[in-house]
Automatic annotation (TrEMBL):
PROSITE patterns: HTH_TETR_1, HTH_TETR_2. Residues 21-81 form the HTH tetR-type domain. This is TetR family transcriptional regulator. It comes from Aestuariispira insulae. Residues 44-63 bind DNA. The keyword Transcription regulation applies. InterPro entries: DNA-bd_HTH_TetR-type_CS, Homeodomain-like_sf, HTH-type_TetR-like_transc_reg, HTH_TetR, Tet_transcr_reg_TetR-rel_C_sf, TetR_C_Proteobacteria. One of its GO terms (molecular function) is transcription cis-regulatory region binding. Keywords: DNA-binding, Transcription, Transcription regulation. The keyword Transmembrane does not apply. Signal peptide: none annotated.
Amino acid sequence: MILNHPGCPIGNTVSKLTRSEAKRQAIVDAARDIFIEKGYGESSMDDIANRANVSKRTVYNHFPGKDALFGSIIEGECDKAMESVAKRMAYCEEDIEGTLREFAARFLDIIYSPDGVKLFRTIVAEADRFPELGTVFFQAGVCPAQFHAQEYIAKMMDQGRLRKDDPEKAATLLFCLIKGDMHYKLLLCFQEEASPEELTALIDDALEMWMRAYAPAS
């Protein structure tokens, strides 16, 4: 109860941090919706502040610009989806195929979700006018995800459980196989969504080819 007393500086700090984080999340949620609705170029910090029901100054207190805000959205989505599998990889989970299967499923959850597809369309459509979008996407989304896979693959190669090769190249190949051609179908509206059965088959085929390519010499 002492922590909630108005005169207690610790209690006040905790309360302020809680309110600050709540406002930050409201800003991120509002920005995600507006970027999808209006596109990156047509979205303004005023729009985001109004949607989040905060002042424009509050938005800038949390994010120096739209690119930082966009990066936070990408980073947050990736962190949320990859948290459990990143822990498995960090502890060198011995079930390689099972670990990579979970990694693939979480990765596809991100890029094949309705919001993920819409955000990627936004990046492609506006990257020419706003090159920072591509940089933000790679730094906040692709690079951390690929780093987790690359680091895990390198450890498995060092232990002799995968064929020794360039782990960066192996991780890149894994990403390409996992994405398949479904990503293009969704981005170009050729197909509205990927069914669970299609995603399972895609992951099965990708891992079968990848594991065969990097199986250790007998």
